[in-house]
Amino acid sequence: MPLWILYSLLGTAIFVVVVFIDKYNLSEVVKDYRGMTIYSAIVGLISGTILWILTGFPILGFVDGVLVILTGILSIFGAAIYFSVIQKEHGSKVIFLFQLTPIFVLILAILFLNEAITIRKLLGFILILVPSLLISSNEGGKLKLDLGKNTLLILAVDLLAAISAVLFKFVVDVGSFSKVVAYESWGWAIGGVVLFAIPSVRKVFIETTRNLKKKALILIFTNEFFYIASKLLLFLAISLGSVYLVNVITGTQVLFGVIYGVILTIIAPKIFKEDVSKSGLLKKIILGGVTVIGLILIY
Length: 299
What we know:
Helix content is 77%, strand content 2%. It is mostly helical and 299 residues long. The chain has one domain (3-294). The longest helix is centred in the N-terminal third of the chain and has 27 residues, at 3-29.
């Protein structure tokens, strides 16, 4: 198995764990999501500095440095939106909507890289878009097209993630991955400074940190480091392979989400309220399978 496939699968599996832990943190531990991005920024600063030291203090050219840092800034702005949604929505729904990121990657490629649109890619586009926007209205309810506020917010996160992935691939190749990855994490820290400058965010972060128990803070920071690990694995996969094919592999997050969702709903039904009925699981598996087929077609 090529290493980029292994890294893609492992990064995806860890990412889904992060989503469900975030759901727990924002349901049981943190009552106001606005301070969560600052924890992400702190971890970005720490991890970026460690990586910079471990990779021999690499210095990037001005343009490359700006582009890589920009990917981190865009990512943390996306994280701020994501935290607002995951506090209200089921983890599996958010994971489904993340499937739309490759569509935005394709659109960017068509607009800026002269990528040709074909009937096959158009069909793949539809097979990803429609299942990702279909949700169950309630337990055992009928499927409906969801274009609500939270869906639109996650679409914004997908767009930011797609821009970050394309910018990162534009700068990075196999030989330069270790040199630039620290700068992406520093971008998170810089974005965090911008968000911390907003009085409401700063106030919530300070109050949340002051009131949280030590174990809760450890869980939050541990989960942020899990996310860093997931991100590094996926960026490494992109540097070794194709950004498009890596996005196809990450389509397996739907299946990971179904498995984790079932287990967590059985263990802690008051926190994780996923639809674990036979009909609900069947819908998720079928729709997830359709999106994977769509991902294969567009690439």
